[in-house]
Design brief:
Strand order of the largest sheet: 3-2-1-4-5-6-7
Number of helices: 8
Structural class: alpha/beta
Helix content: 40-55%
Number of strands: 7
Length: 281
Amino acid sequence: MDRPATWFVTGTSRGLGLELVKQLLDRGDNVAATTRSTERLLSALGDVDTSRLLPLAVDLRDDEAVTQAVHQTSERFGGLDVVVNNAGYGFLAAVEETTDRDVRDMLDVQVVGVWNVLRAALPILREQRSGHIVNVSSILGLTAVPGWALYCAGKFALEGLSEALAAEVAGFDVKVTIVEPGYFRTDFLTTDSIALPAATTAAYPAIREMTAEHLRLQGSQLGDPVRGAAAIIGQVVSGDGPLRQLLGSDAHSYATAKVDALRANVEATAGTAPSTDFPAA
């Protein structure tokens, strides 16, 4: 293209989102970065050249605010090329300990917020017949473990949305990538970031221990956010790659175990599944 690429990235004040913004600006691309606090974003960027940055304080649950942010991006930079839905947070609790408010808050960010961004951005990408949508899921969008039910529910929904979307927009030359990171050395597992239940029950001691182990894991995760962000950018720039982009050896191990378990389940029901069909005439 004859101009720098324009990226619209959500959830940018920390973690992979922040690292993406840094690397994109270093590349000379245009970046519209949404966050709950533009002050925190700018502070975190330090001495990075922000002349090509459009920081936007946006509540992703607000459809009108999201639409306005996408339009601002297109007007400021003269177009839109890549959308990265990265905003999200973790939640560790048993299903029984998860309140109605917890569920709605999580799905508002992980699902409704993404849908708001897509509704605003897709007409632009579709009409220009080019673009790339990157939905940052998690390896826990492919497999589930105890204590992460709510987080998994949001990410599983994002994966289903993304699979359908990829087929819908392929004819417009718009590509979709689902990013499935493992544990990355960001502040995702800090008490400032991860959400915990307001009340717990003594019935789930294993989940309490797992929560403590995850908090202790902070700072020693396998994943390097610098390399993770570079891998995401690399796949977008190449315009190639599979639907799912696994990041991290731990993510690959979890995915392999999931595939093996699913294959065993399918094979175990091969004989009984046809029993519910109408008899052949």
